[in-house]
TrEMBL record:
It catalyses: 2-(N(omega)-L-arginino)succinate = fumarate + L-arginine. InterPro entries: Arg_succ_lyase_C (IPR029419), Argininosuccinate_lyase (IPR009049), Fumarase/histidase_N (IPR024083), Fumarate_lyase_CS (IPR020557), Fumarate_lyase_fam (IPR000362), Fumarate_lyase_N (IPR022761), L-Aspartase-like (IPR008948). The keyword Metal-binding does not apply. One of its GO terms (molecular function) is argininosuccinate lyase activity. It is an enzyme of class 4 (lyase). Residues 7-301 form the Fumarate lyase N-terminal domain. The gene is argH. It holds the Pfam family Lyase_1. It is found in: Cytoplasm. Keywords: Amino-acid biosynthesis, Arginine biosynthesis, Cytoplasm, Lyase. This is Argininosuccinate lyase.
Amino acid sequence: MAQLWGGRFTKETDQLVYNFNASISFDKKFYEQDIRGSIAHVTMLAKQKILTEDEKNQIIEGLEGIRSDVERGVLEITDKYEDIHSFVEANLIDRIGDAGKKLHTGRSRNDQVALDMKLYTRDEILELDRLLKELLEVLLRLMKENTETYMPGFTHLQKAQPITLAHHLGAYFEMFKRDRSRMKDIYNRMNYCPLGSGALAGTTYPLDREYTAELMEFAGPTMNSMDSVSDRDYLIELLSAMSTVMMHLSRFSEEVIIWNSNEYQFVEIDDAYSTGSSIMPQKKNPDIAELVRGKTGRVYGALMSLLTTMKGIPLAYNKDMQEDKELVFDAIDTTKGCLALFTGMINTIRFQKKRMEDSAKNGFTNATDAADYLVNHGVPFRDAHGIVGQLVLHCIEKNIALDDMTLEEYKAISPVFEEDIYDAISMKTCVEMRNTTGAPGKSAMGDVIMAYDMYLNVE
Ligand code: ARG
């Protein structure tokens, strides 16, 4: 047991208590951030003449030594220490002696851990954003290739109207674009440095908090020391934003699973992203999509968990907050893993374009357009709706599509129909006629694709 606070105690901590209290098994993940923060802290302490230049140099050299020894695997972070802060400080004192004992001047583990967690998540937010951008790049490529790939659009999972694959994928582009903007918002809101808040009430040393913040590229220092050591809002926001990413990935996964089913066969998942069955030789399962869908629950769970942990905590720091780490680390790793795998799967998936178009035709997705044809020839919409209903019934009885009816059959139901009905209800026309902003028509889609190109080039 190596702890930083033995002085006022007369008895050793019970081993079970020690284990229960310790956080080293998971906060060792941010040793690099802890050292980065300590280097900034002592640089500021020396500028303020609280430490001498020599002490600062010794400390920084010692900290850099610890960092490189950990990186090279020469120094192991073991559970002999209570937490990562104790590990770094104890090792520093071992290395450089008395100067090391000055590292913690004007600092508490409360502002230190708040800083470490911010430094850690700040980098991870950028990484999440990069992964989202990679997914958007794949989606945009597929959109460009599929502005004339016709397929049924669904409501209630019933075929509704014809759309294109580009349009369908564009819906997900919008979702993941919003996810990126949420990441950016969170980053901007959280990017204030808590270091220098002390345990809760600031400190009597003349710290230059603006300078420390600047050294670590924060927008500035936080403005209330009690809030600084007990604010976990940004983690809740991040868990919420990651839950939304996962929800989007899960919806998309569900569609891939449906599209990949024997009944649909809209897509074929690449062998590299599928798995087989130990008993059924014919099987090729969409396990990656299913796992992404399944792992969504873990991320939601982390959000609920931290909200619940935080709800009853009085100001300022309380140990409950240590519970933030495992949840957030796991949720970040899960979301990043899912994003990377999902992007790889979508990047290699094959779309069965003919199946998709046939499915749109055979599902009467052009029925609304047949009604619109009648309306354009002077038939009131309600009557047109009824006439097309009769056409559909006729087709169902004969097991054919609207496109397969002869002109005589059309005319038998309404004399208004002429030869040009076939063109009016072709998939191409049905989609092409829909050119309102955001619609699947080629020219509307072209504008959107151009805007997405610009967006990806800028951000
Ligand atoms: N391991 C602690 C945490 O994660 C670090 C802060 C400890 N502070 C304290 N006063 N015990 O929150």
